[in-house]
Amino acid sequence: MRILVTGGTGYIGSHTVLTLLEAGHDVVVVDNLVNSSPEALRRVGELAGREAAFVEADITDEAALDAAFSDHSPEAVIHFAGLKAVGESVGIPLDYYHNNVAGTISLLRSMDRHAVRTIVFSSSATVYGEHNPTPYVEKMEIGAMNPYGRTKEQIEDILSDLGASDPRWRIALLRYFNPVGAHPSGRIGEDPQGIPNNLVPFIAQVAVGRREKLMVFGGDYDTPDGTCLRDYIHVVDLAEGHVAALNYLTDHEGVHRWNLGSGTGTSVLEMHAAFEKAVGSPIPYEIAPRRPGDLPAFWADPSAALADLGWSTVRTVEQMCEDHWRWQKNNPMGYAPS
Ligand SMILES: NC(=O)c1ccc[n+]([C@@H]2O[C@H](COP(=O)([O-])OP(=O)(O)OC[C@H]3O[C@@H](n4cnc5c(N)ncnc54)[C@H](O)[C@@H]3O)[C@@H](O)[C@H]2O)c1
Question: Which terminus of the chain is more solvent-facing, meaning fewer CB atoms within 10 Å of its CB: N or C?
Answer without folding.
Answer: C
